[in-house]
Amino acid sequence: MVKTSSLIKPRSQTRIGCPSHVTVVFAKDRMWRLVILEHNHKQCPAKARYFKSNIELNKRVKKQLVLNDKATIKVHQSYDLLQIDAGGPEQLPFLEKDCQHYFDKVKCLQLVEGDAQAMHDYFMRMKSDNSEFFYAMDLDEKG
Q: Are 82 and 64 within 8 A, CB to CB?
């Protein structure tokens, strides 16, 4: 049992020292060779959807999350609706937290009133500090 280094919220962790990995080698005979070490523990394919590499929010799900937000439906309620639509949580290749992370990223990238002006002011300040600095902004009639 290994303790985490976080002093704020220490949690115990179990490590089993699994040596499994995939190595791809281009051999002298101009052939690719795969070297795969076996796991030293049981594997559970049912838990594969929890791996970051298997998470997939497709375009339909992303659009549904945005539309539900505009209709003031919370992310956990949207996730519940997606579960019902898919036939259960085990049918979804993502978790509720993945929906929340996507939505947080979308909201972070949206400009609100005053953001464009703040960016313009920053670029002007950078230009005054460095004469080689270049910027271009393409604005519409709203600014």
A: yes
